[in-house]
Write a structure and sequence with these properties.
heterodimer, A: alpha+beta, Calcium-transporting ATPase, cytoplasmic transduction domain A, Calcium-transporting ATPase, cytoplasmic domain N, elongated, B: alpha+beta, Alpha-Beta Plaits, four-stranded antiparallel sheet, 4 strands
Chain lengths: ~675, ~70
C-alpha cells in the first residue's frame, strides 16, 4: 500500500516538476536560476526513482548469473546511489562544509546523516533504498517551495509598498528629460504628467489636477490640487499636467522617508522572533542528542536488562526519523514572514508601523490615551451654531464678522471663514476692542457689539445663556440683543465610531487628555463615549498623566498614546507605543511616533490594532501548530509508529501550511 | 557609521546565522540582517574601514552559509 502511494506521489512529482518548468520557468522573473536548476534536479531524480521502482531487487539478482556473485546487488546499489547524488549532492557538500567549519547542527547535516543512515541500513539489508532518496527528494521539494513561495511573497509585498518614483521630468531647452530624482536640486521645476507619480515634495507653480494619495494614505478619494498648493511626493497626478517647484531634495521627500521607514521596519525584531531564533538554536541540538540517545540507549537496555536481541537497526531507524523532524524551518521562516506581511498590509491602508516589535506591542494594547485636539477633534475652530437669532443667521454672522474684521484673533478668523466673503472694511467704522470682552463697532451706521457675556453686561444688554459648549459670541445690533454664535472645535466625523470600534477591538480603557476647559472636554468625552477625561493640562502635565496611567495599568497590558505629533513628541515617546495621526507631510510626527497614520481618520487606530491582533494571532497559530506537529511526530517516531516518510511530510507540510498562513496577514482590508 | 548592503540568502535561518556571524566579525559594532528585504545593515565601529571589514564579514558569512551573496 505504502509502495503504491509513493509511486503515485513520485509520478505526481514528475508531472508537476515538468509542468512547473514548462510554464513558470518560461515566464519572465518566474524562477531564479537556482530554483530552475533545482527543479530540473528534482525532475530527473524523481523520474529515475520511479523507473527503478519497476525494477525490483529480483530483476537485478538475475544479473548475478552473467557477472559475478552478488553483482546484481551492487549494480542496484550504484543505480540508487547515482540518483541519491543527483538529488542530494549539495546537501552533502554543505553538511561536509558545516562540519569543517565546526558548525555541526544545521538542517543539511541532519538530512545528510538521516539519509546516509537510511542508505546504510538498506545496503545492510539489501532492502529499500527508496526511502532515503525519497526523503531527500521531498526535503528538496520542500526547500524549493519555501524558496519560491517566500521569494514570491517577498516580492509581492515589496511591490505593494513600492511607491518609489523611478524618474523626474525636467524641462531642458523646451524638451522633457527624465532624470534620476536624486539629481534634482531644490528649487528646480519638474513636470508631472497625468498618471505619473509626484517624485519630490514641492509647490505647484502651474496647472491643476486631482491627486490620488491612496499609495500613501489608503484613502481612495482623490484630492484636488491647484497652483500654489503644496504637494507631497508619492501622490499620483490623475488629470492634469503639473509644474512643480521642488522644496526638498529627493532624500528628504516624504516618499523617501516613508520607504526608508517601511523597509527598515522588519529589521526591528519582535519578541516572538527573538524567541524563535533562540528556540531554534536549542531545539535542533536537543533533538540531535535525543536521536543519539534513542539509537544507543534502548538497544543497550534490551541487551543488558531485558535479555532481548538488541534490534539495532530498528532503533537507529527511529533515531534517523528523529533527525528528519528536527529542522525548525517552519517556525523560522513563517514568523518573520507574518510580520512582514502584516506591516505590508498595514502600509497599504495608510498605517506605517516602524517595526515588528511595535506591531506586537500594539496587539497587547488595552489602554488608548488620546490627545483631544487634532486626533478626536479637527483642531480648527469653527462656527458650530447660531442661536436665538432675531434676524437671518447669515445676516447675524455678517454683522459679527464685519465688527471683528480688524482682529486677528482665532475666534474672529473663524467668524470670517464662516462668513465666507472678504469683509468690506469701508462699511465698518469706530471699531473699539475691549480686551478680554469683545468689540463694538459701527456697521453700515448701526451699533454692533460682539463679544462674551461680560461685554453684554458691560453694555447693559440682557442676553440668553447658551447650553452648548464652546466659545459663545453674543451679538447685539442697535443696542438690542440679536442672538449668539457658538464657536467650537469640531469633533471629527468618525470619532465616535472610532471609539466604539476600539472597544470592540478589545481596548478596555480610553482616556482623553486636553489643555481645554473642563466643560468643553467633558462634553466632548461624553458625546464620544470616552471613559476618562483629564482637562486643563499643560504639555508637561500630559507627560505626568501618561506616566501615572502607565503605573496603574496591569502588567502585560500596554498603553498607546495617540497624538497629532506636532507638540506632543515627549508624550509619544513616553507611552509604550506612540501613534501619530495625520502625519502626511509632517516630518516631526514621523520621527517621534512608533506608528504613523498617514491621514487623520481616527478609525485607523482601531484598524491598526485589529491588524496587529490578526498578525499576532497568526504568529501564535504558526508557533503552536508547528511545535505540536513536530512533537507529535517525535513521539510517534520514538515508539516506531511514524516512519521517515511521515517525518518528512510533517516537516515540509507544516512549513508549507505555515507559510500560507503567514501570507494571510497581508489581507487586512476588511478588518 | 551605518551602511546598508544588498544580500542574497535563501532561508530565514541562514539569514539569522549570517547576522550572528557578522556581529562577531571584528570592526562591526552591530548588524541586522533583514531576510524579507534581503538587506544587511551594518554599523561599523569607530575608525574602521568598511571595505576591509566587509571582506571579513563576507568570509564569515560564507562559512555559515556557502550560498550567500553580499553586494559590496
Amino acid at each position: 500500500m505504502q509502495e503504491l502511494i509513493i509511486d503515485i506521489l513520485l509520478a505526481v512529482v514528475v508531472l508537476a516538476a515538468a509542468g512547473i518548468l514548462l510554464f513558470i520557468g518560461r515566464r519572465e522573473g518566474g524562477m531564479t536560476k537556482k530554483q530552475r536548476k533545482m527543479m530540473v534536479r528534482i525532475l530527473i531524480a524523481a523520474a529515475i526513482l520511479l523507473g527503478l521502482q519497476f525494477a525490483p531487487a529480483k530483476l537485478f539478482d538475475q544479473l548475478d548469473r552473467y557477472l559475478f556473485p552478488s553483482a546484481g546487488r551492487w549494480i542496484r546499489f550504484v543505480c540508487y546511489l547515482i540518483d541519491y547524488f543527483i538529488i542530494g549532492y549539495d546537501i552533502l557538500k554543505k553538511a561536509a562544509k558545516g562540519i569543517q567549519n565546526r558548525r555541526v547542527f544545521d538542517e543539511n547535516f541532519l538530512m545528510a546523516v538521516a539519509t546516509i543512515g537510511a542508505m546504510a541500513l538498506a545496503i545492510y539489508e539489501n532492502g529499500e533504498y527508496l526511502e532515503a532518496i525519497a526523503v531527500m527528494l521531498f526535503y528538496q521539494i520542500g526547500e524549493w517551495f519555501q524558496s519560491y513561495a517566500v521569494g514570491k511573497s517577498r516580492r509581492n509585498i515589496s511591490s505593494l509598498m513600492d511607491i518609489r518614483p523611478d524618474y523626474a521630468n525636467v524641462e531642458r531647452d523646451g524638451a522633457l528629460e527624465q532624470v534620476d530624482p536624486d539629481e534634482v536640486e531644490v528649487g528646480s521645476v519638474i513636470v508631472v504628467q497625468p498618471g505619473e507619480k509626484v517624485p519630490i515634495d514641492g509647490v505647484i507653480v502651474e496647472g491643476s489636477s486631482s491627486l490620488n494619495t491612496s499609495a500613501l494614505t489608503g484613502e481612495s478619494l482623490p484630492r484636488e490640487a491647484k497652483t500654489g498648493d503644496e504637494v507631497i511626493s508619492g501622490c499620483i497626478s490623475m488629470t492634469g499636467v503639473l509644474k512643480i517647484q521642488t522644496t526638498k531634495e529627493f532624500g528628504e521627500s516624504t516618499v523617501s522617508k516613508i520607504l526608508d521607514l517601511v523597509e527598515n521596519a522588519s529589521s526591528r525584531k519582535s519578541r516572538s522572533e527573538d524567541f524563535i531564533s533562540k528556540f531554534a538554536k536549542v531545539y535542533t541540538p536537543a533533538v540531535c542528542y535525543s536521536a543519539l540517545a534513542l539509537a544507543i540507549l534502548p538497544p543497550l537496555v534490551r541487551i543488558l536488562f531485558m535479555g532481548l536481541a538488541a534490534n539495532w537497526s530498528v532503533w537507529i531507524y527511529r533515531a534517523l526519523t528523529f533527525l528528519v523532524i528536527s529542522c525548525p524551518c517552519a517556525l523560522v521562516i513563517s514568523i518573520p514572514l507574518s510580520f512582514f506581511a502584516g506591516i505590508g498590509g498595514a502600509s497599504q491602508q495608510g498605517i506605517l508601523v516602524k517595526g515588528s516589535n511595535f506591531l506586537e506591542i500594539l496587539s497587547q494594547t488595552k489602554t488608548v490615551v488620546f490627545d483631544k485636539t487634532g486626533t478626536l477633534t479637527q483642531g480648527v475652530f469653527e462656527v458650530n451654531g447660531i442661536h436665538h437669532s432675531e434676524m437671518e443667521d447669515t445676516k447675524l454672522l455678517e454683522y459679527a464678522a464685519l465688527a471683528e474684521s480688524a482682529s486677528s484673533h482665532p475666534i474672529s478668523k473663524s467668524l470670517q471663514r464662516a462668513y465666507g466673503k472678504e469683509p468690506d472694511r469701508s462699511r465698518v467704522s469706530d471699531i473699539q476692542e475691549i480686551s478680554g470682552n469683545g468689540v463694538t463697532a459701527k456697521v453700515d451706521g448701526v451699533e454692533v457689539a460682539a463679544g462674551n457675556d461680560k461685554l453684554m453686561r458691560h453694555l447693559g444688554i440682557s442676553y440668553i445663556d447658551c447650553h452648548s459648549t464652546g466659545t459663545i459670541i453674543h451679538v447685539a445690533v442697535g443696542g438690542a440683543y440679536a442672538g449668539h454664535i457658538v464657536i467650537s472645535d469640531r469633533v471629527k466625523p468618525h470619532a465616535k465610531e472610532a471609539i466604539a470600534s476600539l472597544k470592540s477591538a478589545g481596548v478596555d480603557k480610553t482616556v482623553m487628555l486636553t489643555g481645554d476647559a473642563k466643560k468643553v472636554a467633558d462634553q466632548v468625552a461624553a458625546s464620544l463615549g470616552i471613559h476618562e477625561v483629564y482637562s486643563e493640562l499643560l504639555p508637561a502635565g500630559k507627560v505626568e498623566k501618561v506616566e501615572e496611567l502607565l503605573r496603574v495599568k496591569s502588567g502585560k497590558a500596554k498603553l498607546a498614546f495617540v497624538g497629532d505629533g506636532i507638540n506632543d513628541a515627549p508624550v509619544l515617546s513616553r507611552a509604550d507605543i506612540g501613534i501619530a495621526m495625520g502625519a502626511l507631510g509632517s516630518d516631526a510626527a514621523i520621527e517621534a511616533a512608533d506608528i504613523v497614520l498617514m491621514d487623520d481618520d481616527p478609525l485607523k487606530i482601531s484598524k491598526a490594532i485589529k491588524i496587529s491582533r490578526k498578525c499576532l494571532r497568526i504568529v501564535y497559530q504558526n508557533i503552536v501548530f508547528a511545535l505540536a506537529v513536530k512533537f507529535a511526530c517525535l513521539a510517534l517516531g520514538a515508539v516506531g509508529i511514524a516512519n521517515m516518510y511521515l517525518a518528512i511530510f510533517a516537516d515540509v507540510g507544516v512549513m508549507v501550511l505555515a507559510v500560507l498562513n503567514a501570507i494571510r496577514c497581508l489581507f487586512v482590508k476588511k478588518l | 557609521m551605518k551602511k546598508t548592503y544588498k544580500i542574497e540568502v535563501d532561508c530565514a535561518n541562514c539569514a539569522n546565522l549570517m547576522e550572528e556571524a557578522t556581529r562577531k566579525t571584528e570592526g562591526v559594532a552591530s548588524a541586522t540582517v533583514n531576510f524579507m528585504t534581503q538587506k544587511m545593515i551594518v554599523e561599523f565601529a569607530e575608525g574602521q574601514d568598511p571595505k576591509s571589514v566587509m571582506k571579513n564579514v563576507l568570509k564569515a558569512c560564507r562559512k555559515v552559509e556557502p550560498d550567500c551573496e553580499i553586494e559590496l
